[in-house]
Amino acid sequence: MSSASPAPDVPLALPAEPEIRVVGARQNNLKNLSLSIPTNELVVVTGVSGSGKSSLVFDTLYAEGQRRYVETFSPYARQFLDRMDKPQVDRIEGIPPAIAIDQTNPVRTSRSTVGTMTELNDHLKLLFARAGRLFCRQCARPVQKDTPESIYASLARRAAEAGDPRLIVTFPVQVPANYTEEEIRGFLERQGYTRVHAQRKAGSGKNAVQVLDVVQDRFRFGNAERARVMEALDAALRLGAGRVDVRAVDAEGNETAHWKYSDELHCAECDIAYASPTPSAFSFNSPLGACETCRGFGRVIGIDYGLIIPDENKTLRGGAIKPWQTASYKECQDELVKYATRAGIPLDVPWRKLTPAQRDWVLNGTPDWKGGSDAWKYQWYGVKRFFDWLETKAYKMHIRVLLSKYRAYTPCPDCNGARLKPDSLLWRVGTKAEADLILPESDDRYVRFRPLHVAWDQATLDALPGLSIHDLMLLPIERVRVFCDALRFEGVMDAATELLLQEVRARLKFLCDVGLGYLTLDRQSRTLSGGEVQRINLTTALGTSLVNTLFVLDEPSIGLHPRDMNRIVEVMHRLRDAGNSLVVVEHDPQVMLAADRIIDIGPGPGERGGQIVFNGSPAQLRQARTLTGDYLSGRRHVAAPRPMPVTPGTPRLIVEGAREHNLKNITVEFPLGRLVCVTGVSGSGKSTLVQDVLYPALLKLKGKPTEAAGAHDRILGDDWIVDVVMVDQSPIGKTARSNPASYVGAFDGVRKLFAQARLSKERGYTAGMFSFNAGDGRCPTCGGTGFEHVEMQFLSDVYLRCPDCDGTRFRPEIREVTIERKGRSASISDVLEMTVTEALDFFEGERDIQLGLSPLADVGLEYVRLGQPVPTLSGGEAQRLKLAGHLAEAARSGIAAIGAKLSKKGSLFLFDEPTTGLHFDDISRLMGAFRKLLAAGHTLIVIEHNLDVIRASDWLIDLGPEGGDAGGEVIVAGTPQDVMRHPASHTGRALREYEAQIGQAADAPAQAPEEAQLGAPTVVAERIEPYGADGSHEPAGMPLQNVLAQRRRTSRAIEIKNAREHNLKNVDVEIPRGAFTVITGVSGSGKSTLAFDILFNEGQRRYLESLNAYARSIVQPAGKPDVDAIFGIPPTVAIEQRTSRGGRKSTVATMTETHHFMRLLYMKLGTQYCPDCEVPVEPQTFDLIVGRVMRELKGQHVGVLAPLVKARKGYYTDLAKWAANKGYTHLRVDGAFIPTAKWPRLDRFKEHDIELPVADFIVDPANEAQLRAAVHEALEHGHGVMSVVWPLEKLRAAMASGDAAPAPDLEQRVFSVKRACPSCGQSFPEPDPRMFSYNSKHGWCPACFGTGVKLPGFDAEQTGEEAAWNMGDEEVQPCPACHGQRLNRQSLAVRWRGRSIAQLASLAVRDAAKFFRELETEGREAEIARDILAELRSRLAFLEEVGLGYLALDRAAPTLSGGEAQRIRLAAQLGSNLQGVCYVLDEPTIGLHPRDNRILLNALAKLEGKGNTLVVVEHDEDTIRRAEHVIDMGPGAGVRGGTVVAQGRVQDIMANPASLTGRYLARPLQHPLQARRPVTAETPRITVRGARLHNLREVDASFPIGRLTVVTGVSGSGKSTLARDVLLDNLQRRIGKDAAEKGGAWTGCAGIEGWETLDRVLEVDQTPIGKTPRSCPATYVGFWDAIRRQFADTMEARMRGWTAARFSFNTGEGRCPVCEGQGMRTIEMNFLPDVKVPCDACDGQRFNRETLSVHLRGKSVGEVLAMEIDEAVEYFAAHPSILNPLQLLQSVGLGYLTLGQPSPTLSGGEAQRIKLVTELAKARLDEGTMRTGRAYKTPHTLYVLDEPTVGLSMADVEKLIRVLHRLVDAGNTVVVIEHNLDVIAEADWLLDMGPEGGNEGGQLVVQGSPEQVMRERARSHTGRVLAEFMASQVEMSKAS
């Protein structure tokens, strides 16, 4: 069906706005729908309950949008993400990534709170870290870091107050253990310090040390010059390790005052040091901040005294202490009586009347408890010590059971529920006035939180300024908002803090806007209602400011009072205006009328629905003749029946003094036998009153187990009701066997009827035979479900009709039993197919069945089939089914009929928003069902906001007046008319407006539609004008944020504000959305930081926030980048460059995931053949198995085993328990027989095989009965599979020798009733995807372990990823066992379409694509293969698109070239087919020949054409010129970069004089930079003959000696194979002192000539350099040792006896002990990603304080590490061994790096060049000579460089070329593998490989000078591209 034409009054979108096109949706009951949904609109989908709304919105739209984005994660990550099932739809085009904002809260951890859900905690922790002030826990004074200036100011004040005494400035010096005091004094004297004021001991015991207080200076403050005092303080702080003491002395020299200062956070008065604040210190989700006792949960598991003393009316003598009333602990009760009498504690007074002191005595024992092992014999120990003693016995099972009865969560004793470490609570933000504004001292509800470990009294706490972070957590959000709005920071609070505050204020405002101001930030998210969760998620979505995202909402109006409805509408409009699409399932008229478009699905529910009845604007819907249109326009309305009056004589249920949460000590009366509605604005206390107070209190009164009721005085009138039933919104059972008939209990009656049928009696069938849940009547194939569930490991599971029973659930014999009624006969299956209406008619007169089914009709479910599986019901249907279940129960219990009439008592039903998910029409029916309940004498109390239900109630209780603190009072209780008359009631007002509207609509049925439209409906939806403004003009009254939002919408850009990550310097950039942007600049300028650390991480993090917490802990989203704000960011996908190609077990198919899908295909559809007989495997009968055992094992002592667990991980304790209970003594685990009684703890992470030994006997005809019984039992336990082991004599011998877990070597044979070879009888296991995996022992070939090649030393423990196996230097032989096919014989014998999986994988990509394209499937095969084939086809098509059609799918990853590996990763990502995403690519052209680069750019252009944003970090000129927008970072690298030099189109960059990139684009390098070195026939050469490794085809190539040779060619043509694997590897084995073999065979070629003149061979490849934080340029290049030796030679080091080892940060005593010399600390935490933070002990300097005090020419060792290379060149100018590598680093453009920069922070290009320098430093360019006999000569080195330009900008490439020329000029030979045209143009000699890649390459197309290669352009790709490049250069130089 196509969508209706858009309405004339729908604001027309810009023509460029894309649409989401759904074609052929058939999910659930949808009838092949096709429609277009415009993006950037608010679309409401409505319709009667069960019509197919959720099927369209959630199961189709959301499922596809979410699934496609999740596809972009790694296969490992995806298995943890809840990927939605692929919907049943032909195709969906143009779908953006989708986020569902639903009402379920997936996070169940107590660490998740409102604060963490809304990310407010993240912002508040930043605020406290930046703006908090610290107060000492002892003296409560402010603590701050002292500087010489602050100390000077303090001394000026203190000296003036003390009358200007003499001051002595001293600093402490510790005497090391290995020195005497005299030696230290001698060292001090040499430095000019001759006076020591005092010497003292610090510490105690082993830690005692001698400390000298050395005098720095003495003066009177009044006379001393400022410079002198400052110098003294500065020197004292430096030498005293940050501590300085100032002593005031009188005339006699006696000390009168002692003032302490510290340059750390250190309270000098109390001598307490504090850590510097970090944001993590204020987060209980971080190990840095979380309380160590409770791990940030705020509670610990303790004992609940409420459970120990459940009845407070009991006395101590009467058994108040429940656990002591049993025989086991009666002595405790006796001792209580004995000691209580002595202590004067009354024994006969109820517990609730005991004084607090008396209760404390009972619980905590006698106050003067002495302790000791037997103190309990003569002192009262108390309940607490009794339970402490029990804890010590918890290893006993019965004690654990006892403890579990009294366990409960109690507040953590160390943080008192604050969740944070003690010191985090000492930081406060704000002033006293700001704090008093929201938390006055007079407040009796909330008080300031006092941390447990402080010495402050209440007065001190009240006098402190501001609030701590936990104070904010405990206050309602509305108060926190007032506080944050009032916060003002004096002084130089930076702009970032202001921005932070703005963000906090905005989020708090959003929360208050959607009516959640009453929540606290510390409220656990799992205690929130569905509506609250949804609204929080909505504000979070607003806060994340994602764009181009599809938000899918499920009834956001739930839980909202009509007064608050416009708030939610406003939020949705805001999300839409930010550039998102919203699709909302909703029934509320206010939300409907606020939509841009309404889609009405109908016309009826279930099978009668699934079609689009209407698609247009709200105004058009009111005129349309649909059910929804009729209700919206007032032509129909929910009938309000005549109310039942409430008189003074009506019996009442009374709750007195309710004061839980925000209830203000209220007394509420509920008239009984009436429909009572509790209403009020959101947060006013409705749920608290009904769910937390009334329900648990009534349950307790009725003697049922329950949680403690909320605080109240008492409940009266409960004797009027018999029972209490709560019908809340919890979901009902969701198994496929559950159905409406069984849910309401009608099916039991049906089964009994069938059991009485004539045929049943003849055959002896009982009612149990007609059950599809158990018994023998159900179909054995599907187990009574009616369908076959085909599990697809990484696709959505497939459900097929059961082939045996055809979906009827029962065996054919059972279906033969029929019942005849009203002229038609029906079997049990026919009954399940009937609708409720048909069944009511068919079973007329059957009271039991009628009682069950009629409630289904009452609640409007008459159309549902009796056997419809419950999971297929919609939310509204399931809700009503639950209600019908309760109605049926009430009807059946007989209370309705007789009990209520006689005793005038009924039950009390409590309903929580029963209209959830119901359309107007469904509500009408619901009210009818309610009236039936009332008629039966029951009472209904309903919490509801729906005005139709409120109007129809007999009695209303309206709570308010507002939510949260401002609520909790009864505004009015009375009839709806009473409430309408009340002036202060929001409900009354809404009712008045609703009545007026309905009245008008009903009074004027004849009005013209236009007039009806102009009537009162404006009241229903206050369409928020400011947010709906049309954007063409900005009206005067428009709020500022809307003006900004609109400008942002028109700009359509991603805006990044003030990025400071790594070296970025407050960068502001705008990246246009939907365009191709290149970020370029010199290496290390911050490109990747901007693109990946900020743009990608943030886009992905915001999307991941919408996934569940478990998934997030696996796909660890990166932390928040250091940036003020990012606006307009779509979800992002990164395609990073990884230099690894994959291990020995990786192939093209596994890297692109095509192999995963092929495995699935073979598992589900393949046919197992017997590898020996080549015949298909088929089932084997029971008798055949018995016959074979009798025949083949006659006379053997055998054991029969049933397999229980096959290759699964776990402990399996429960399994052992089960076996022991069944009487089995042993289980066989991995071959060992383990007794079930003493079950060990198995290795949880190892895969186990567990078998059940069923019986053992000798095979003999006499024992056939025993054999048959054993085989039958084993097949039953093993689900059709069993095995036989023999000879058991070995087992007996092992047991006799006393072995506890014997594992004898036994023969074993498997038998299966399902799968066995008919000819040789061999049985085969059930198919499993792991059978076809190269990484699983179930699949791999046992000889080569899945590598397909012969690798000596490779075993099952290796993964194949290890570097040693991937050198790829030697020719490898295929595995002789599997002939390179990688799998075992059994797996290779599975065939599908006549091929094994290995044969299919051996096809080239283009052939496989053709095979799958032309494949036709039908029937069951088509159903199963549908999704798999779609995946395979799209992935193979993308591989072809990026030019890799020639690769074989089973080509091993190590044999791929870098460019091929890069494009394979790209193809894998491009296959996800998303729209509106931002792809971030990191140098995709790496390893690509210019020809392949163009193919790639075309593929990227296609991606962009789908409406995606592309951001590419790139230096390649072609790519930059293709970009629409270029951002040039610079001007330098490292700390000299990090700013945007230029941005705009390519022309703008070229015109910008500051842009280095622009300069190179406008004036490229002129080639050659120096004259080419001629290569003539006489030039000596190294010649390779007959190279044949990998794809080389007998290549003969020559490399001229003393020249610059470049090997080039298209990707995969064999360049690296020739230069590295043949030339380099062969020569490395023959040349130099490490040469392994001077002679020996040549590998990969026939021979190499002319190499004899070489003295050494050096290689610079692309492997990454060490990635530990300890590795840095100084250690990697190798000059750090020389620097350490210099430090060890200083006077200060020698005075302390230190060697060079002291200055190592890798080992020894000199490094910082906290971070072990890394400068960073990694903090691990359960359930959360690890956190890396700068070490707070050494401040990132890697060394401890003593080591840092040694100075070399004025700098400490930490300062030298922090020095830039440029600076270090001057500093070490006199030290050639250090200077030479430093100059090399400078010459390749790395002068900006610091010596100690950690390797992980280097960019790709920087790491590449450091590696180059390391190799060059081994052979210094200017080094003289090497000794040869008596003479000296310059060593002749062969350098082989693999793509050295990777990651280098144009400017850096020029530097590299000059270094290469210097190397050649120094007499060396240089061979470079390269695609960069600048380098190719500089070559003296070119080798061009080709003509294509893979099998089509491997030939030498042409070799010669660049000019010769250009002349061969007809056959050489390189020649053609190089000619174009040189020609364009000539033109450029002419132009410039």
Report what the structure shows.
With about 1950 residues, this protein is of the alpha/beta class. It has 69 helices and 67 strands. The longest helix has 23 residues, at about 1420-1440. It is globular and about 115 Å long. The two termini are about 60 Å apart.
Report the sheet-strand fraction.
15-25%
Major beta sheet, strand line-up: 5-18-19-3-20-21
How much helicity do the residues have?
25-40%
Major β-sheet, in short? 6 strands, mixed
Structural class: alpha/beta
Overall average residue pLDDT:
85
The low-pLDDT segments are 1-16, 895-902, 1003-1041, 1725-1729, 1821-1831
Euclidean distance between termini CA atoms: 62 Å
Q: How many β strands by DSSP?
A: 67
Number of helices: 69
Rg from Cα? 41 Å
Question: What's a quick, concise take on this entry?
Answer:
This protein has about 1950 residues and is α/β, with parallel strands linked by helices.
